Amino acid sequence: MSDLRYDIHIASDERELVAIQDFRLAESSITVLFGESGIGKSLSALAIAGLLDRDQLDIRLNGREYRDYLRSVELADLRKNGFFVFQEPSSHLNPLMTLRSQLREGALTKVSDEEGIVRRLWRHSPSSHVNEILSVYPKPYRPSGGEKQRILAAMAFKKMSTTPASAKGALFIFDEPTGNLDNQLRDEFLDLLVENFRSRHCTVLLITHDYSMISRFTTSYADLAHKIYYKELGLERGRLQLREFLPSAYLGWVKAQKAHALAERGESTLMKLQPNVRIFGRALKVTRHPAGRKPEPLSMAKGSLVYLKAPSGVGKTTLVKIMMGLLQAEELSMVLEGVEYTQRTLRQVWSTHVWGRQMAMVFQHADEALNQNARVKDVFAGLPLKTPMNEAAITRTLSQLFDDELDREFLRKPVKYLSGGQKQRLNLLRSMVLDTDILILDEPLNGLDFQSSVKVLANVEDKLRRGKSVLVISHNEEIFDALTMPEDVYYLHEIT
Amino acid sequence: MVIDSAVNRTRLRRIADGSDARWLMVWIAGLLVLWIWDAIFLNAPAFDAVQTSFLNSLATGIMVVVMALFFGWVIGVGLHLLERSEARVLYDIASFAVDILRSVPQIIVVLIGYVLLTLLLHEGTIRSTAGQLVWIAFAIAVAVSLEVSDTVRERINHFRTLDFVDAMLSCGISETRIVNVEILWKNSRSHLLYKLIAIFGMSVFLQCSIDFIVSVGLSTDVSLMNFPVTLGSLLANVDSKQDILAISNLFTDPGYISVILVRHLQGISVAFCIVFTLLCVYMIANGFVRRHRLV
């Protein structure tokens, strides 16, 4: 079987952005590409699909000038028979057309099974809701991120179903197609992908941070093992390398995590949140049951890892912000280390006693949570530590999650020049370095590669061993289900 | 290291290519040409007066910029911290006081400053030229500092909607540090610098306007003669007014231009200095906005 092979070089006026030799995609196969955020996965995929602006960037593909590649027959084939699903769906949708018209635009008009594809991607929604969504314009009605991702996926699957089997240039690129979907919908997406792949034998590049896809592929589609390749884009000695990723590395690690869940933990309760919370006129309740039967207080014992689950948009992040006192609720009752906090607790009390002292929180989007104009070492300035961190202490802290580049130059680097994965590690370390009894992690593995995720979780485990408590919100259910005791899993529901 | 030096080179090139840098050079070059011309053709006492007035106005403008930055920063941050605290009454009082100051036209505030200066001169509290200039700068800074405080508050409010403020608060970083260091120092320097460039221009304009107004005299004992000479006061001087009026001869005798540029230099130089400075400050501010993409 022949491979699609690319040497990619992309640079801006200021710096080199991507330099990869031998970026290989096996034809008529699925390549799952992992790697930290900002390492160059999307940029490489966009370059291959001919979607980068040659006036803004200096691009060479397989030794050719980009303008020559844009005129090439191979790209023309790719555009005719392939499809690109963007990471940020908003940039791909036309604000002046309804979603339904976009779903039937151009080559997609011919496809008859649109209804079937859409129904499966909205399996848990009533058809009236689906019709409502399809008849809106992307602006100003603004469908949610998950809805937009499903529209793009539906377009890709429609295109796939019209592509002749093993057609030349039938490369389907999915860039983080399930980032906004819950696990059930993600599985539905993967099922549709595999079904179409089986019938069309096209080439698929699936870019993702979700390593648990490996479990899904290996358990549900074991017969396709020889057609699915796992690769990871990472830095080796300062150079980008595309290396094979062994599924067993992830599967073995997840299996090993199950043992840790049996570890002993303390009995004393650090925090107890009453199950009913109200904010912005919405009522939320916490339960231990996925169906939300009986409200129960969310309780965090010393050394426990608590996992809070809910579908996207219910208000997990809102709830933890309320628990941190960052949002003022209309109804709240929480006891933290013997002191009661309610909706009437003054902001001064939260700032003096709670923030950075008893509780700390890691926000989910490192890009927004960090000051982009700060330098790396400035991220640790102003923290309520017994002694302020000097450069040596910062370097020691960074070395917990950073392998290399820990020289003075790195400490002085502006945050905005870091990759997404580096930002996320910095974001995590800022809170982890604090000696708080409770740490809240909102999507802590966002944008991290496997090795970094392992290190982050080792860090979390170390905190738990030292009697600290950690509350996690994460879509990486497979990982956190393995790490959490069943009695520490809570579900958040909106009361309608 | 190589990348960093490349980035620095690019940064320097951008600054050099920017129209703000070009207009700054034009301003300096224009003033230099004027100075040489005046040194050759203007009589010594008038040349001294023009030089002193320019330096006094420049010094006042710089002091206004520094004081307005200080007052504006303190007012903006103070109002923000009061608003975020539980002291609502204090916030309401402070914001009412600021709104009252806002409701008074800037020129009236400066005029009140001149009236107070007159009283202080009467009492002999302020005697030195430097002291008078500092007082004038103070009056103008009070009048224009709300421009800075509004920018400070806009920037803080903009960043408050972003996660990084809450993320830092939740790590125990103090709000004072977040506002002063993270938001204003690290993320708003360009915005504040742009505002300060504009304030320098406003300061020149307000000084000249007020000097013209007070040229009729503030009391029987105190007039422009008691105040330090500035561009505005020198322009309000009878000799300068005659020089400006001489320009009207050009309508009937265009050849008179050669005489104007030699014989009526005091008024022409001061007027040119004011208009040229205001034009350059305006162009520098616009160029700065474009270079830093502030709008």
Overall description:
- The complex is a heterodimer of chains A (496) and B (295).
- Chain A is of the alpha/beta class and 496 residues long.
- Chain A folds into 2 domains: 3-245, P-loop containing nucleotide triphosphate hydrolases (Rossmann fold); 260-495, P-loop containing nucleotide triphosphate hydrolases (Rossmann fold), CATH 3.40.50.
- In chain A, 35% of the residues lie in helices and 23% in strands.
- Chain A has helices at residues 41-48, 66-70, 73-81, 99-103, 114-121, 127-134, 138-141, 145-162, 183-200, 213-220, 247-260, 316-323, 347-354, 366-369, 391-398, 408-411, 420-432, 450-465, 477-483, and strands at residues 3-11, 16-26, 30-35, 58-61, 64-65, 83-85, 171-175, 203-207, 228-236, 239-244, 269-273, 276-279, 282-287, 298-301, 305-309, 333-336, 339-342, 359-362, 438-442, 469-473, 489-495.
- In chain A, the strands form 4 sheets. A 7-stranded mixed sheet of chain A has the order 12-13-21-15-20-19-18, with helices on both faces. Chain A has a 6-stranded mixed sheet with strand order 6-7-8-3-9-10, with helices on both faces. A 4-stranded antiparallel sheet of chain A has the order 2-1-4-5.
- In chain A, strand 12 and strand 13 form a beta hairpin.
- In chain A, helix 8 (145-162) runs parallel beside helix 9 (183-200).
- The N and C termini of chain A lie far apart (55 Å).
- In chain A, 41% of the residues are buried.
- Chain B has a single domain (21-35, 44-291), classed as MetI-like (MetI-like fold).
- In chain B, 35% of the residues are buried.
- The A-B interface holds A 13-16, 321, 324, 326, 346-348, 351, 355-357, 359-363, 365, 368-371, 373-374, 378, 381-384, 409, 427, 430-431, 434, 440 and B 1, 3-4, 6-7, 10, 84-86, 162-164, 166-175, 177-178, 181-182, 186-187.
